[in-house]
Write a structure and sequence with these properties.
The structure holds two protein chains of two kinds.
Chain A: H1 7-22, E1 33-39, H2 42-58, E2 62-68, H3 71-81, E3 90-94, H4 95-103, E4 107-108, H5 112-121, H6 124-129, E5 140-146, E6 148-152, H7 153-158, H8 168-178, E7 180-181, E8 187-189, H9 201-212, E9 220-223, E10 226-229, H10 234-249, H11 260-266, E11 271-274, H12 277-285, E12 291-294, E13 304-315, H13 321-331, H14 334-344, E14 347-348, H15 356-359, H16 364-372, E15 378-380, H17 388-403, H18 412-432
Parallel strand pairs in A: 1-2, 1-3, 13-15
Antiparallel strand pairs in A: 3-13, 4-13, 5-13, 5-14, 6-11, 6-12, 7-8, 9-10
Helix pairs in contact in A: 2-14, 9-10, 9-17, 10-18, 12-14, 17-18
Chain B: H1 38-69, H2 87-94, H3 96-127, H4 134-146, H5 149-159, H6 167-174, H7 189-214, H8 218-226, H9 231-242, H10 244-259, H11 263-267, H12 283-293, H13 297-321
Helix pairs in contact in B: 1-13, 3-7, 3-10, 4-7, 7-10, 8-9, 10-13, 12-13
Classes of the chains: A alpha+beta, B mainly alpha.
Chain lengths: ~450, ~325
């Protein structure tokens, strides 16, 4: 065997270590100040990219780098990267997802001047919902996920429904007239496309909007400075009954057909509830669809909808906080907000901006703005409480399992048991976080 | 040199190693570490040290870290955490979500492993019979295996889509059958996902078993044929017993893959036209949920450790079941 120099292994090891270290040298260290932003929705990402191009032209010393991670992937990415100080400068997430990070010191609150600007231009409820317990705004309330009912005007006319439903009972009655079936009894057109599966907290959010609010049930309610499950009551039982009846009694919706915006665009559902982004989606995917929107109907327990805040927050570890705040604020000024609403359909918070240029081509967008501020109509948001995401996700799992149970039809005891056990789990989660009120 | 007429063969004499002491016996190929010089040994250690270090850091240490976390209330979103003892493990016993996931994972293993091994053997035996276009079939079987799991799961999500939009239901209705809630019917959703998993991995087992079958010595097969064994008897009594080590390898791999199934379950619970999740949730999916949806890393670590122990036990049982075999005809 040839003699191997003793230094060879050391040389090889040193070369290996150098290669590994070299990969860590950031590229473009001599470039303009870079502000990174992680976005969570494809349409918002596209609008951010377009806005960033304009901003960079006006501010040549700033470089904006936007990266899209689809919503759930964004949540996971942030969960790992933010505590490690490796997240982007700006992060888009649901406000209730951002709040625990703020509590643990991973996010920077808005500086006083920007906070004052937000308080001046945003509705009071939006400011309140993004204010932490220390009185500071912990994120920009960027855009609003207010839910309204989308309806197919042609199907309504065909069914002879001339008046839009204003109460839950009217909506249920209309849904029965609008449903179509094939020869085998399969639902071919859902009269009301209830959200019965998919997406965890998304399902519980739609359930909260569609059924719990009108029947007066709350997901959690304040008790002595803490919280308890607020749906282990008649309102909660009526909410579950509404869905069970829709699936197994009235049969206005089923599991084995398409759902959501895609189904509505394809004409296989007559009504469904969603946010304003559907307007932009339908413009692209179903431009000939003759549709309208109406507010969530009133129920015996209340009138309102869920308008979750999508927030934009600055990482505590960001080295360009000033530039990040400046870009975020610029994106939420009037011209950019109007552009965003037009381009994506996601509803900006400032209702005082002039969106009238959009209403002629997209009249539905006007309804969303109007009902965000209507007297007597409450827009609910997630509570600023660390456990709220887990509460909703776990509730979603249980109610989705309950939706699969045909035995709950005309079974008040069964429904009461499901609601009670679900509420027990909600309370357990609250207790785990030290937030359960007695 | 072997003595003439002797029935015992002796190994050929080789020139002694230049570095070995005079008169020392010749080294056999693949000699022990002791026979290496210290400098050669040091060189080997230096060369392998980075790889071993990476293996220990990436594979071994995390197991102990997870075990440590499983005794704490560690959460990603909390700056501080504390020791909680066996609280996480006690919670597992009463956690219906965990128990359902454990049951689903067990069903997954008990269905997927025999399906993959038996179907793999079946197709490998067929292909080992000198069929026409053998390479084409081998490629066809192996193709699903090389497709990444994410696009494969997305394709199957479309195949299983509800109503008439899914390819499977579309053809069922064309043939006059009713629609099937592939991912929405709690009774079949898990089997539908397992079916996809088996389809994806089958090619690997076909190829591995086929290679094994082709390496069965011809003289053994000829001897069986001369003795009057039929084709199937030859397969069952000669080829498969010789294939036992490879079958064991296949079974172990199938078991590990089945216990660690996640991507297909994750993909098939995303969206509004898919499974609600509970009926197809497996243990790794629960670990992901607890760790990255609810940020309960301590609890997720407890589930991880339980999964590690259970899958290790399964593999050990397989080794025990295959123990004591001897290669026939050697």
């Amino acid at each position: 065997m040839r003699h191997v120099p003793r230094s060879l292994p050391m040389i090889l090891l040193a070369a290996f270590a150098f290669l590994v270290a070299a990969m860590g040298i950031p590229a473009g260290t001599m470039a303009a100040t870079e502000v990174t932003i992680w976005t969570a929705f494809p349409d918002m990402h596209d609008s951010v990219v377009k806005m960033a191009e304009k901003y960079m032209k006006e501010n040549p010393n700033i470089k904006i780098t936007a990266t899209l991670f689809p919503q759930r992937a964004q949540e996971e990415k942030v969960a790992v990267a933010l505590p490690a100080g490796q997240a982007a400068d700006l992060i888009e997430l649901d406000k209730f997802e951002l709040y625990p990070y703020y509590l643990n010191g991973f996010l920077e609150p808005l500086p006083p001047d920007i906070e004052a600007w937000v308080k001046k231009n945003w509705p009071e409820y939006a400011v309140k919902n993004s204010t932490a317990n220390d009185g500071k705004l912990f994120n920009f309330p960027w855009y609003n996920g207010v839910k309204m009912m989308f309806y197919n005007k042609d199907y309504f006319k065909e069914a002879g429904i001339t008046k839009l439903p204003t109460t839950v009972d009217e909506m249920i009655a209309a849904s029965k007239k609008l449903t179509k079936y094939d020869a085998r009894g399969n639902v071919t057109r859902a009269g009301l496309d209830y959200r019965v599966m998919g997406g965890g907290a998304g399902t519980s959010q739609k359930y909260w909007t569609q059924a719990m609010i009108p029947y007066g049930a709350k997901v959690i309610e304040p008790v002595g400075g803490k919280w308890r499950a607020g749906y282990n009551n008649e309102g909660g039982r009526n909410a579950l009954k509404m869905y069970i009846d829709a699936l197994y009694k009235d049969k206005v919706v089923a599991f084995d057909h398409k759902h959501d915006a895609e189904a509505f665009g394809l004409g296989i559902s007559a009504m469904f509830q969603r946010e304003a982004w559907v307007v932009g989606y339908l413009e692209k995917e179903a431009p000939k669809l003759n549709y309208g929107v109406f507010p969530m109907p009133k129920g015996p327990g209340g009138w309102g909808t869920v308008g979750n805040t999508m927030g934009l927050a600055v990482s505590k570890s960001s080295k360009v906080k000033k530039e990040a705040f400046a870009f975020a604020k610029w994106m939420m000024e009037a011209p950019q907000s109007v552009f965003q609403y037009d381009y994506t359909g996601w509803q900006p918070f400032p209702t005082a901006y002039d969106y009238s240029s959009l209403y002629k081509k997209k009249p539905a967008l006007k309804e969303f703005i109007e009902y965000s501020n209507k007297a007597g109509h409450t827009v609910y948001d997630y509570e600023n409480m660390p456990a709220i995401s887990e509460v909703h996700n776990r509730m979603a799992e249980r109610i989705m399992a309950a939706f699969k149970r045909a035995d709950l039809k005309d079974n008040p005891q069964g429904i009461a048991k499901v609601v009670s056990e679900t509420a027990e789990e909600t309370n357990r989660v609250l207790a785990d976080h030290g937030m359960l009120g007695k | 040199m072997a003595s003439q007429g002797s029935s015992v063969s002796t190994p050929p004499v080789r020139a002694t190693d230049p570095g070995a002491p005079q008169g020392a016996p010749a080294r056999r190929g693949g000699g022990s570490l002791r026979a290496l010089r210290k400098s050669q040994l040091a060189f080997l250690l230096w060369i392998f040290a980075p790889v071993i270090a990476l293996f220990v850091i990436i594979r071994v240490i995390p197991i102990f870290v997870i075990l440590l976390f499983s005794f704490t209330n560690y959460s990603i979103t909390r700056a501080f955490w504390r020791w909680t003892g066996l609280v996480n493990f006690e919670r597992l016993i009463g956690d219906n979500n965990f128990l359902v996931a454990l049951w689903n994972s067990t069903v997954y293993v008990l269905v997927a492993v025999p399906a993959e091994v038996l179907l793999g053997l079946f197709f490998a035996v067929l292909l080992s019979r000198r069929v026409r276009f053998e390479s084409f079939y081998e490629t066809l079987y192996f193709l699903p295996y090389i497709i990444p799991m994410v696009p494969a799961a997305i394709i199957w999500k479309w195949i299983y889509a509800p109503g008439s939009f899914g390819l499977a239901n579309h053809y069922l209705e064309l043939l006059g059958f009713g629609r099937v809630g592939w991912l929405t019917n709690p009774k079949i959703a898990l089997l539908a996902v397992i079916g996809m998993h088996v389809w994806k991995n089958l090619g690997f087992f076909v190829i591995v078993f086929l290679v094994g079958l082709k390496n069965v010595p011809n003289d053994v097969k000829e001897a069986a044929s001369i003795d009057g064994a039929s084709q199937w008897a030859q397969v069952l009594r000669v080829e498969l017993p010789l294939l036992k080590p490879i079958i064991l390898f296949g079974a172990v791999m199938a078991t590990i893959w089945a216990w660690s199934a996640f991507t297909e379950v994750y993909i098939m619970t995303q969206g509004t036209d898919v499974s609600t999740g509970t009926e197809i949730a497996v243990l790794v999916f629960r670990i992901y949920q607890e760790g990255f949806r609810f940020y309960n890393m301590g609890y997720a670590s407890a589930i991880s450790f339980v999964l590690f122990v259970i899958s290790l036990l399964f593999v050990l049982v397989q080794f025990w079941l295959f123990r004591g075999w001897k290669e026939e005809g050697s």
